[in-house]
């Protein structure tokens, strides 16, 4: 049974949707005024995984994720660029889809925009005003928090404490410092819509309540977002939604942790801010890796930390993720190349596969524990590498590869073709900081071999360096021909000769 940590109750709970085998889930999307950063990527990926696993577990998932496309930040960005605000939102919605596609994040069932939901927003605000929970002041409408006794239930804060520590803009017109805007009267040059309270635009919090209830009903199963949304955004959503309907709003509240850079929360003000496309551009320019490889590497890296924990991002961490994936894809190639009709290790594979299945289901049932699921994949990799040494049949290897593919799909992994994980084109040398000694990697595609070797013959004059390199290539070519003739004794002798010089051979 799936258990989920519910922020509302502060504990893990068995998951029981309102409708058997159907999940209605809403996740707060991005405000489209800039490119997506790593925090956006992590949140999108977390809920993509949750959705994938619930679907794998047999649920039909109605997944709604919104775009906030009217906001102070959008208006400011449009003014800076000297373009209409609609041009800003269109540009960055398109950019969002480009980034998410690179990460393998599936589209939600519905992805409404706030500007397309204005009638629902106005109707919800009107309902709150008529119930006496909201009030109008000079064309603005505020939610009166004192009229909702349960305010603070999600963030576990009392209204008195919130008032004492409030960092809110002083507005003498508000009846309580924590009252928040549902509708804002229009200012010159800003986007606006007609309403019973005059021309204006909605506050941020009311948008999500209106959109989620329109598509999922007044009460639904899961509401998610980043941990930074717990207060005030999600707290305010609960107050205005339950205040309007008198019903429970969302039953399970799921929040992912922050992304940190060197153990500090990522933020523009600290100058430790990375967009998704900056990471792709950097890795492509430095390493020449293809987009699919970078996307899966970043995805793997993000999944190695539990979604509720803070995630510390670094280039080294990303390199380690790439190395872990390299090891898996190296196994996949070996499994695909198997040609034996029978193997002495065949009988041991099925129990390992069954253990993988049990480990992954146990990990994912326990609040979507992706780190444990990934550890299970790596354990199977290690065991299969041992059995390949004993000998495995082509049929068993094919089944093992399919196991990785099937269970990897629920995490969005192992979907890249094996050859995509080959090193960059010949002639490009790459330092490998994951090695203990300073070594470089070089790929010889015509010889179907990759080598790892010490930094190329330091201290030699250029003529001697070239001679050494030619000698190395001659030995590799001789070994290639020996393998082609099935003279494995000579091939192994050359491997040993090169190993004495610190050169490791990896056949492709």
Report what the structure shows.
The protein is of the alpha/beta class and 508 residues long. The chain has 3 domains: 254 residues, Rossmann fold (3-Layer(aba) Sandwich); 158 residues, Isoleucyl-tRNA Synthetase, Domain 1 (Orthogonal Bundle), CATH 1.10.730.10; 78 residues, no CATH class. It has 15 helices and 17 strands. The strands form 5 sheets. The protein has a 4-stranded parallel β-sheet, sandwiched between helices. Strand 11 and strand 12 form a beta hairpin. It is elongated.
Number of strands: 17
Strand order of the largest sheet: 4-3-9-10
CATH architecture title of the largest domain: 3-Layer(aba) Sandwich
CATH superfamily of the largest domain: HUPs
Q: Which fold name fills CATH's third level, the topology of the largest domain?
A: Rossmann fold
Strand content: 15-25%
Report the principal-axis shape.
Answer: elongated
Level of helix content?
40-55%
The overall number of domains is: 3
Q: Which structural class best describes the helix and strand composition?
A: alpha/beta
The N- to C-terminal Cα distance equals 42 Å
Look at the structure and give the mean pLDDT. 89
Rg over CA atoms:
28 Å
Largest sheet: 4 strands, parallel
The CATH class label of the largest domain is Alpha Beta
Helical run tally: 15
Low-confidence stretches: 424-438
